[in-house]
Amino acid sequence: MRTHRFAGYLFILPALLFFLAFLVYPLLHTVYLSLTEWAGFDLKKITFVGFDNFKLIPPDWIFWKAMRNTFYFVVGTTVFLNLFGLGLALFLNNSTRFTHVVRTLVFIPVLLSPVIVGVMWSRIFDPFGVLNQILEKLGLIQTPIFWLGAKNMALVSIIGATVWQWVGYDMVLYLTGLQQIPEELYEAAMIDGANRWQMFRRVTVPLLKGVATMVILLNFIGGVRIFDLVYVMTKGGPNHNTEVLATHLYEVAFWFNKMGYASVISVIILAISLVFAYLRSRLMSEEKA
Amino acid sequence: MPRREPFSRNLIWILIALWLVVTLFPFLWVLSLSVRTPKEVFTAILLPKTIRLANYLEAWSKFGFTLLFRNSVLVSLSSVAVTVFISALAGYGFSKFRLKGGSFLFHLILSGVMIPPVAVVIPLFVFMKRLGLFNSYPSVIIPYIVFGLPVSTFIFKSYIQNVSNDILDAARIDGCGELGIFLRILLPIIKPAVATVTIFTFMTNWNEFLLAVIFLHDKGLYTLPLGMSVFVGQYSAPWQLIGAGVVISIAPVLALFFVLQNQFIRGLTAGAVRG
I want to staple A262 with a disulfide (CB 3.0 to 4.6 A). Which of A73, A141, A252, B180 is the partner? Predict the structure, then answer.
């Protein structure tokens, strides 16, 4: 430890200033703006209206649809990401050349911009796209399915594309978790005559719980923010059946210029994120203890 | 080595093969789409009869990739450079100096990871308008810098903590100033952390869409994801050109990934392991 305290403060100063000016201040400002009314382009006409904007939430059926869709999206993606991510991690948890190649390939979609993923998958899901072509060739369907155009298929399709993109991410985190389990535990279990299922049930599962909770929370936090893929693939349609909180906020703010009300939606997204973040930090401190 | 997984080997290979097909098929399909003649766009599944590489030239000029790449490189590189530099400075300050309130300030910055950009876009919009920065490169560069800070500061702090004090002390005795120690002694030692942070923040910014679509309105400012989303939607571009456009946008990232696989995987999952 150095005692040149003054220099120390100078080192953290630039980061701190940036952080306060462009994150903390805007954050507090969001809360303030949610109590005001103004049309996006004239910044001088911001008037204080108290909780009036919050009263707009209950009758806003699109908001509730967005809330419900975000919930389905978060649960749907988290379930399948963890199922497939953990599955792949278990299968690929040995270091042969082959498993290394497979892991690398499964990770590739993680590198892509969700916009590009959206552009790709919109064509795949198109009524004339390759998915319907294949299903027709296999004789599974006679008429094309409107993956992104049908009320009850659109959100499912977006969940599918999201899972496709992020499975590699969850897989890598689970692999890290698996590699931290000491080999001796499996050896001891084997000497005790445990079969493979018992080893999985009694050694792998309990020791993976911490990692699993972390991955699940990360998927939740990521899911609440979902914007890009929905914007590119459906713009929230058809008839708001894929509307999520972030796309609703975007429309309210930048298409309809209702900035005060949009700030209310910001505050709600923020509150949900903070709940998950709180759970996560609780978890982290439990892990350490 | 005892077997850990509770499933039969054959089942495993079948499932892995299946997932590989699911993972790779979209890429192969887009690649095939990108070289098709307009006639075959909707008829071929994977193998077109004739290959038309001219699609790439057409897509390049139609989407204006020269400009998109230039903008994306400019925006990503400049924000990453600033994030890396100031978060490395902060990491050094937090780990090697006994600061009053240091722990509080560190956790304050770290708490930034919880804040989704979408929760602050409206005040940032107001801010950028007031500063006259709306619809300019800085309107996205500044938020990119800030949203990169929490994870980067955490990574640098953890890494620098493990650097021996003796080396720094020796330099100090030799009369090296504090900034000199940071630049000449510490930076070369923490290269691996610099690599991790660079990849993490670069990829995040390179792929970012929400802030770009809100703040960048002039076509001349569009980044790669913004350009792709706008052009694909607006002109209902022919599919073979969309295919070529997708291939052009992901090729550089894939090339880098295959050269630096492990660094990429470590960098991209770095956001998950902060604590």
Answer: A252
Q: Cα separations (Å) of B81 from A233, B176, B187? A: 32, 25, 14
The range of the structural domain enclosing residue B178 comes to 65-236
Residue with tokens 């100090």: B172
B254 within a domain of the structure (yes/no): no
Please state which CATH number belongs to domain A68-242: 1.10.3720.10
**What are the pLDDT digits (tens) for B89-106?**
999 999 999 888 899 999
> pLDDT over 90 for what percent of chain B?
63
Residue A33: which of B19, B86, B123 has the nearest Cβ? B123
Q: Rounded CA gap, A267 and A34, in Å?
A: 8
Asked whether residue B207 falls in the same domain as residue B166, the answer is yes
Alpha helices in chain B (DSSP H): 9-33, 54-63, 65-96, 102-110, 121-131, 137-161, 165-173, 178-180, 187-189, 191-207, 210-215, 224-234, 239-259, 261-268
CA distance B75 to chain A (A): 15
Nearest CA in chain A to B124: A26
Helix (H) or strand (E) holding A95: none
ipTM of the complex: 0.90
**Pairs across A and B, CB distance < 8 A:** 291
B99: contact with A, CB 8 A cutoff: yes
pLDDT in tens, B9-55: 788 888 889 999 999 999 999 999 999 988 888 877 778 888 889 99
